[in-house]
């Protein structure tokens, strides 16, 4: 095992997945990539982001970057010196699958469900789709 990728939306379940992926990467000496997906934000969340930050696209990028930075801190705290950060846009499952293929990941780690700011990233149907279609091992963290 050389490459591990973990998907996160900043939710508690996704945070557990980040922790599990970081521990696995450390134990196996593998590289770790962290991915988050934007694009499926509720209307209320879009309005809140736009009114707070003014520019909606900048607000969405800022929200995604915040999630990635928080996940990076978790991974660093668990001994991963330089996890790769990746942000994608669009359909959550397809974007994550694209990242797995691009990274040639040996294993994809995901949480069972998502409830973070970028709602919809890791809902049950997405993790099921990933488990069915990923070209790698998929570890679903409860």
How does this model look, in words?
This protein has 142 residues and is of the alpha/beta class. The protein has a single domain (3-141), classed as Rossmann fold. Helix content is 51%, strand content 20%. It contains 5 helices and 5 strands. The chain has helices at residues 12-28, 43-53, 56-77, 92-103, 124-133; strands at 3-7, 31-38, 84-89, 107-111, 137-141. Strand 4 (107-111), helix 5 and strand 5 form a beta-alpha-beta unit. The chain is globular, with a radius of gyration of 14 Å. The model is unreliable at 116-123 (pLDDT under 50).
Task: Please provide a brief summary of the model.
By secondary structure, the protein is an alpha/beta fold. The chain contains five helices and five strands, in the order βαβααβαβαβ. The protein has a single domain, classed as Rossmann fold (3-Layer(aba) Sandwich), CATH 3.40.50.620.
Write down the Rg.
Answer: 14 Å
Which percent band covers the strand fraction?
15-25%
Largest sheet composition: 5 strands, parallel
Dominant shape: globular
Classified in CATH, the superfamily is HUPs
- Integer count of domains: 1
Spatial strand arrangement across the major sheet: 3-2-1-4-5
Q: How much helix, percentage-wise, in residues?
A: 40-55%
Count of DSSP H/I helices? 5
Order of helices and strands: EHEHHEHEHE
CATH class: Alpha Beta
